[in-house]
Amino acid sequence: MTSKIYVIITILLSYMGSLNAQKNDTLIQRFKVADDIEYSYKKPKFLDIFRYIPNDLAEFGKFTIQKENLLWTSLAIGSTAAIIPFDQKLIDNASELGEGIGWDKDHSYSKVANVLRIIPNDINSAVYYIGNGGTTMLLSGTFYAIGKISNDYRALNTSNELIEVLLSVGVITQTIKRITGRQSPSAAIRDGNPGGHWTPFPSFNAYQSKTPDYDAMPSGHVATFMATLTVIATNYPEIKWIKPVGYSLLGVLAFEMASSKVHWVSDYPLALLIGYVIGKNAANRRIAKIKKRHANGEIIKPKFKTDFSFNLTPEFKTAGVTITF
Fold first, then answer.
1. DSSP 118-187
2. How far apart are CA 52 and CA 54, in angstroms?
3. Residue 309: phi, psi to the nearest 5?
4. What is the Cα–Cα distance from 132 to 298, expressed in whole angstroms?
5. Fewer CB within 10 A of the end CB, N or C, for the chain?
6. At what angle do helices 2-20 and 153-180 cross, to 10 degrees?
7. Ranges of each domain in the chain
8. What is the pTM of this model?
9. Residues 6+ apart with CB under 8 A from 72
10. For 122-158, what is each residue's pLDDT tens digit?
11. Are strands 37-42 and 109-112 parallel, antiparallel or unpaired?
């Protein structure tokens, strides 16, 4: 059900984008995203998906140490450290609340054509799936199909970016998981380890054979969803509901994984940072932002309309102002 909803939403996004496109030639297309801004896109190349992955990794590394970004890096690390002592309590509370609303701690899926097990059998399994790489691939495929049908460069670039961030996020999160070696909640509860144990740099064989014992930090699902949302929201800033709906789904996903004992809450801050930085860099790399100007060369500024109102009654005197922009 969740996958179907995403297909419908993505088709609408791409269709709306194609209506706004100003296709002046076959090399560049412009899209109006605000009264004073247009986004310009070149026709994407498939191999850019893979060519830019090293750039994504390098840019994330630079972001974390640049002076102007130290606040965000410190916030991610600091909040992680602050939450860790409370992880077990938060997991217990989330699990209790999840059981109270009828969410199963396990995730159950049915097979498609008796091959792929991707159809969720309950609500919490559907919620868990939205952070799966399969959802990002589905969205990418939908953007690609619409982009091809309508010759929409913005949709085609978005399609490429989604696969790019899926791969880049996977490399970063898997690297950090194999460095931190943090035990997942389900494995920790099984072994009687409140908060889970840490085994930095577990061996390759140990990680592969007993993955839940080492792969909690950071959450790949949260990082993937954050990167996916950031790519779409950055390319379609004129569609205002993308962020509130997306962030709400992200919150539900984070709660579901805590209630089903997949992730500790402290696994999330670093994942959010990874997803946002990777998604933002991938999208901005392909966007040329053009400020629209008046004939005299001045940049067009958004127009504001102000209306004043006054009401007099025997009991009240009121004055109001309405600003439309």
1. EEESSHHHHHHHTTSHHHHHHHHHHHHHHHHHHT-HHHHHHHHHHHHHHHHHHHHHHHHHHHH-BPPHHH
2. 6
3. -140, 145
4. 46
5. C
6. 140
7. 2-324
8. 0.81
9. 63, 273
10. 788 788 888 889 899 999 999 999 999 999 999 999 9
11. unpaired
